[in-house]
Amino acid sequence: MSTVYLPVEISRRELVAKTMLAGSLAASGHLVLMFRSDLFDRVGWPGPGIYIGKNVFRSAPPSDVSFLKRMQMSGVRIWHLDEEGGIYLGDGEAPWREFLSRRFNPKLLGPKDKVLAWGEWQAEYFSKQELSASVHITGHVNFDVCRPDYAEALATFDSQQTSGAENYILVNTRFVLSNSRTSGNEHLMHSATIRGFFDQDLMFDKLVTDGHLYYDFIQMVVGLANRFPDRQIVLRPHPGEDSESYRRVFAPLKNVLVTGQGDVGSWIRRSSCIIHNGCTTAIQATIGGKPVITYMPRPDDRRATACLPNWIGAIAHDLDTVVALINNGQDMCDGGKWRRTISVLDTVEKLTSMVDAEAIGPSAEWALNSARLRCFRFRASEVARSLARTVSPRRADQFKHIQKFFDPTFFGRVPELTKAASQQFSTNLECKKLDSGCFAIRLAPNATRK
Questions:
Q1: Fewer beta carbons below 10 Å: N end or C end of the chain?
Q2: What is the value of pTM for the model shown?
Q3: For the chain, which domains are there?
Q4: How large is the average pLDDT for residues 55-61?
């Protein structure tokens, strides 16, 4: 038995997939702690275990290693699995490798740690770095749970997420630089993440490209609403975008819904097709067997666009082509070019088998009691921080921004997703709430391991 730590930073992007992974691990006899990504950083780690995630590095290199050192001192082994481990700007693997090199410094990991790569070219890059940590191709759970294998277990949850809506036209956007939640000055000029990831020329190219596409997509959605007055169109902005800007524009259009609620996988599974530009959801939809329309009104914008998703689906350069593709039920047009980037799709099964080969952590009861104590400390620290925010408007604004990303209400749906995982893995799982930011998942008493 191992104790496994699964951090959650952006609930709506990570929660469903990580709960399914937690269910598989628990069904195999392990104790899994799912928690707000900064919780144990602030109050100490419950004990030795396996950490699967990327939040140990909070910035581009040179990264702050204080989090890593505290984890290593607590006996926590790092299995680094990036949420954004392969879909980058540029038209080919050379610029992608350059972006990957800016994500984190894998040489900071030790011989008991692991680097988990989405696909072949990432593993090739890491393997040339002479690392202490071992390198494994695992894919990512966010893609695994898009497979039709999970659709039945998630059917009830998906219906709740979409309020029963189905067969709508789904439009996914990701124009974060030009349509940010935060001010342009804060987001572009003072963000260590943005400044560390983009050089100045590329940052401004990306800003202009995003700005063009932001208005192009608004124009396209207005056109679709008028061409298909009896069809519902659902627009889902990236979590980092300002959703209100879309709501203001589309308010007069009764058949356009702008929503960031719930998990994007639910909205993909219940859609008739999706429309995107440079969005990871195109690959997720393809894995799920959904038709994809890649809207490219500016096909020459390649340097500042994530080209891999744009190699997928039926290409449309104008509104008339989009309408024709929707009417004709377009082909998938999947040439499989994404498979060197995402080379494993049974990620949940692979990670479970890897954890099964380890035995890291104290007894489940000891780990649970230790985690409860730390959650109590965390709640006390949150009360203190809440008092500080009442006298500091800037801290209050930062807190609201962080909470929008984490979405504690959505995180609270771990118990119902655990029930779906019980169905998926044909066993009885137990989910205990230790804090509003932490759940423990394990095999229920007298239940049989899968």
A1: C
A2: 0.90
A3: 3-144+343-443 (no CATH), 148-337 (3.40.50)
A4: 83
